[in-house]
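Comment thread on ticket #2218

A.B. wrote:
> Attaching the input chain for the structure job we discussed in standup.
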Amino acid sequence: MIADRKAFIVAQTRVLAVPHAPEISLHLADEVTPLWQKTEEELGTMGLPPPFWAFAWAGGQALARYILDHPETVAGKRVLDFASGSGLVAIAAMKAGALVAHAADIDSFALEAMLLNAELNGVRVKPVEENVLGRFDIEADVILAGDIFYDREIAAAVLAWLKGWRERGASVLVGDPGRTYLPKDELTLLATYQVPVSRELEDLEIKKSSVWTLK
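C.D. wrote:
> Ran it. Output below, let me know if you need it in another format.
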């Protein structure tokens, strides 16, 4: 068992500027598989989810860029960043003047990584280590979802949940690099970017990624 997740993250990553949002730096890994294997070895557990927290995904980068360029979307508001991973989008929200940023993820490593990354960037986020899908009891005015529409079942559940937030008066922003199950018919396009990404993560080094809002 890893006794100190913070020390593990620091040892297995490098502090790097986010390619499409260089105002923000994160603890990032160079390769997916070695870190994944190292985590399983240290924990003595096989079949763990990939270390999503150790990478700046294209959808998250696009969403972070949009928020930094349009601070009025979050300034003075309470934000919920769904499946936050590294905390990139929540950190961008705080840098743009959000009142509070709840960063939700079910991976305990992600929770530790987002705290490290927030400290690195001189902001605070509020980690939420649980599955918030289907819940509406977190105080939030803006819901942020980066790179989440990659699976049919997950996409359907997330869309229904985001609609529920919209019906309750929250605004919803989605960052996506063209995933198969992105429900474009339900969304309005706000911006499109050419986002540099690792070939470890994507099929291209530059990934066209967009930011959307619910209609």
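A.B. wrote:
> Thanks. Noting for the ticket: The two ends are 46 Å apart (CA to CA).
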